[in-house]
């Protein structure tokens, strides 16, 4: 039954699109502040960290949406195993299964 797996993917796609939009807006706003005198009330390091994090979210969500369009979304990029839906619901832009993610960062 393919109809049962389509729906969560649609939800994840909406979630990713919203996240992508939000991060893009956030990045634009933060970039604007970084050009203002006094960084719009932020200290330099905090602003730099926020920009880096927003930029990363933009690139991760864009990557996930691209994989969705290609039909390779939801499989681990390293070992090609299906990433469990519960993991994708928590982390929609997950690129690796949990064991591979641990090896990646550890
Ligand atoms: Zn894996």
From TrEMBL:
Keywords: Metal-binding, Zinc, Zinc-finger. The keyword Metal-binding applies. The keyword Ribonucleoprotein does not apply. Residues 71-101 form the Zinc finger DksA/TraR C4-type domain. Signal peptide: none annotated. It holds the Pfam family zf-dskA_traR. It comes from the Bacteria. A zinc finger (dksA C4-type) spans 76-100. This is TraR/DksA family transcriptional regulator. The lineage of its organism: Bacteria, Bacillati, Actinomycetota, Actinomycetes, Micromonosporales.
């Amino acid at each position: 039954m393919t109809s049962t797996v389509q729906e969560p993917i649609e939800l994840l796609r909406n979630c990713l699109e919203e996240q992508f939009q939000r991060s893009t807006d956030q990045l634009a706003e933060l970039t604007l502040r970084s050009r203002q005198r006094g960084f719009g009330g932020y200290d330099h390091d905090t602003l730099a960290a926020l920009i880096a994090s927003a930029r990363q979210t933009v690139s991760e969500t864009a990557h996930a949406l691209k994989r969705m369009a290609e039909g390779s979304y939801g499989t681990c990029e390293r070992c090609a195993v299906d990433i469990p839906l519960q993991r994708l619901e928590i982390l929609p832009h997950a690129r690796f299964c949990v064991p591979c993610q641990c090896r990646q960062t550890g």
